């Protein structure tokens, strides 16, 4: 292993890591305080800084529900440690579950935990204080101890974030926050879209925490990903959680749909002082302005609006001022602007804005990203179009499909089947340049693999969503 790879595998402050405690996973950004809450326990993570990923740490009790960490040289299973010298019975039929078999009270057990007693000692006391434990069969004893181990487990593993882990974390927390997108569905989408390391792909994604964007970007080495969304600052939790390098993040171009389509169609995207002057009814180089109604060119096309009700868009921040995607809109009327309720500070701000109308604004970063995305797609097109969103995607496909190369894939994901069925029908009727349309549904079930106890898991998700696949051709 070279030095570069070794440094990337070390845990650093500011990185995102995945904390695993048995089957529980948590995504966490390591900050300077180095604290994390696991259930009701507060864990100090200072000991993990500078250590390699995949290191196992043991939780050391400090104060009440507070733990430190040390590197674990050996991880011992709690049932194996407790059952070394324990006899077992042959039959459970004579055991009565009357709720009185445990002699320790809840207060006693809480006192053990607050005193900093180790998990093995606590479970050992629970076993000794149980009047029925020795009479249980070996299988029942093991089942009881595994249940206690899950509650008092004292080992954690620090893992590197991956797309599969992030998909599992988001899905387990709230499957509807990612549109029911499981890791097997992500794998199928990447396969159907024929994602290659040097390709250029267009992705419209909303409501999935940028899981698909992270998965595609993780597969690229020399290509680019144009991430299209309804706003200029879409959620990027999965992108941030993957700890991508600056070089790889440059291949991720995030643009707003209306700006992107306008630019592709050769329309002008207005911003800054020019947008203000147009909205206020004073377009540049215009000799006359209609008194009753005016036409304002927007990303959605030319739209007539009433001049008595104007929408003032806040000035786009410059490169050195805050995040490039922040925007706000304020509705006002001519009567409200003349009202006496306007404070002095607001009046001064309006005067300053009017004085700065003629000044050239700095070119915002999102506009530079927009130009780069258009330069990638407009000359030769994208190598694939992937859509995963809450909206009905027909209009999005109609706008973006002309910029996809022939013999490339169209992949649309939806949690429900009905939107894809309707989309399938519309594409069959109206589009001659899309063939091979199919709708797929993934089905995944995990199994328990144990000696003489191999069976599917009792609980499972009903569906991993539905996928529509088609091929773009030249009609």
Structural features, described:
It is built from 17 helices and 20 strands. It folds into three domains: 1-160, no CATH class; 163-262 and 367-472, Rossmann fold (3-Layer(aba) Sandwich); 272-355, no CATH class. With 475 residues, the protein is α/β, with parallel strands linked by helices. Keywords: Nucleus, tRNA processing. Residues 297-308, 328-342 have a biased composition (Low complexity).
Element layout with pairings:
Blueprint: H1 3-8, E1 16-21, E2 24-29, E3 35-38, E4 41-44, E5 56-61, E6 66-71, H2 78-82, H3 106-114, H4 119-128, H5 138-152, E7 155-159, H6 163-173, H7 183-192, E8 200-205, H8 211-219, E9 224-229, H9 237-241, H10 246-249, E10 252-256, H11 257-264, H12 272-279, E11 293-298, E12 301-306, E13 309-313, E14 329-333, H13 334-337, H14 344-355, H15 365-377, E15 382-388, H16 394-400, E16 404-414, H17 417-430, E17 434-441, E18 447-448, E19 455-456, E20 466-472
Parallel strand pairs: 4-6, 8-9, 8-15, 9-10, 15-16
Antiparallel strand pairs: 1-2, 1-7, 3-4, 5-6, 5-7, 11-12, 13-14, 16-20, 17-20, 18-19
Helix pairs in contact: 4-5, 11-15
Region (Disordered): 277-364
Keywords: Nucleus, tRNA processing
Organism: Lygus hesperus (Western plant bug)
Descriptive labels:
Rossmann fold; 475 residues; 17 helices; alpha/beta; disordered N terminus; seven-stranded mixed sheet
Rg from Cα: 30 Å
Quaternary organisation of the protein chains = single chain
In which range does the helix fraction lie? Answer: 25-40%
Q: What would CATH call the homologous superfamily of the largest domain?
A: Vaccinia Virus protein VP39
Overall tally of structural domains: 3
Counted by DSSP, the helix tally is 17
**Distance from first to last alpha carbon:** 52 Å
CATH-derived topology of the largest domain: Rossmann fold
**Structural class assignment:** alpha/beta
Which outline best applies?
elongated
Q: Could you tell me the strand content as a percent range?
A: 15-25%
Largest sheet: 7 strands, mixed
Counted beta strands: 20
Tell me the strand order in the biggest sheet.
Answer: 2-1-7-5-6-4-3
The CATH architecture assignment of the largest domain turns out to be 3-Layer(aba) Sandwich
**Mean pLDDT across every amino acid position:** 80
Q: Spans with pLDDT under 50 lasting ≥5 residues?
A: 1-5, 282-344, 346-352
**CATH classification, class level of the largest domain:** Alpha Beta
Main location: nucleus
Keywords: Nucleus, tRNA processing
InterPro entries: TRM6
Family: Belongs to the TRM6/GCD10 family.
């Amino acid at each position: 292993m070279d030095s570069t790879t070794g440094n990337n595998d070390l845990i650093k402050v500011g990185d995102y890591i995945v904390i695993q405690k048995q089957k529980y996973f948590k995504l966490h950004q390591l900050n300077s305080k180095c604290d994390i809450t696991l259930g009701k326990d507060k864990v100090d993570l200072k000991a993990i800084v500078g250590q390699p990923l995949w290191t196992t740490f043991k939780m050391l009790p400090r104060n009440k529900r507070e733990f430190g960490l040390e590197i674990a040289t050996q991880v011992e299973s709690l049932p194996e440690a407790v059952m070394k010298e324990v006899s077992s019975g042959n039959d459970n039929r004579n055991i009565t579950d009357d709720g009185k078999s445990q002699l320790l009270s809840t207060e006693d057990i809480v006192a053990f935990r607050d005193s900093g007693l180790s998990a093995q000692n606590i479970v050992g006391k629970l076993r000794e204080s149980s009047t029925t434990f020795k009479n249980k069969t070996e299988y029942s004893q093991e089942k009881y101890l595994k249940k206690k181990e899950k509650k008092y487990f004292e080992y954690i593993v620090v893992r590197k974030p991956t797309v599969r882990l992030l998909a599992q974390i988001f899905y387990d927390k709230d499957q509807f926050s990612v549109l029911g997108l499981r890791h097997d569905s992500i794998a199928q989408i990447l396969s159907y879209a024929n994602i290659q390391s040097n390709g250029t792909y267009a992705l419209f994604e909303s409501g999935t925490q940028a899981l698909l964007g992270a998965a595609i970007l993780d597969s690229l080495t020399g290509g680019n990903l144009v991430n299209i969304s309804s706003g200029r600052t879409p959620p990027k939790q999965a992108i941030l959680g993957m700890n991508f390098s600056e070089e790889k993040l440059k291949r991720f171009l995030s643009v707003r749909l209306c700006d992107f389509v306008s630019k592709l169609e050769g329309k002008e995207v207005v911003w800054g002082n020019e947008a203000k002057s147009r909205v206020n009814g004073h377009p540049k180089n215009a000799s006359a302005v209609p008194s009753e109604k005016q036409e304002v060119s927007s990303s959605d096309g030319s739209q007539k609006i009433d001049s008595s009700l104007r929408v003032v868009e806040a000035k786009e921040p410059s490169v050195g001022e805050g995040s490039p995607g922040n925007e706000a809109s304020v509705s006002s009327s001519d009567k409200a602007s003349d009202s006496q309720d306007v404070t002095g500070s607001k009046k001064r701000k309006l005067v300053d804005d009017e004085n700065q109308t003629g000044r050239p604004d700095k070119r915002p970063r999102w506009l530079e990203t927009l130009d780069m995305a258009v330069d990638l797609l407009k000359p030769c097109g994208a190598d694939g179009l992937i859509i995963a969103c809450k909206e009905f995607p027909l209009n999005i496909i109609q706008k973006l499909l002309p910029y996809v190369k022939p013999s490339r894939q169209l992949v649309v994901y939806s949690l429900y089947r009905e939107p894809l069925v309707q989309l399938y029908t519309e594409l069959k009727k109206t589009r001659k340049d899309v063939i091979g349309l199919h709708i797929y549904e993934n089905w995944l079930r995990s199994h328990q693999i144990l000696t003489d106890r191999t069976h599917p898991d009792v609980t499972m998700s009903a569906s991993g969503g539905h996928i529509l696949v088609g091929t773009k051709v030249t009609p």
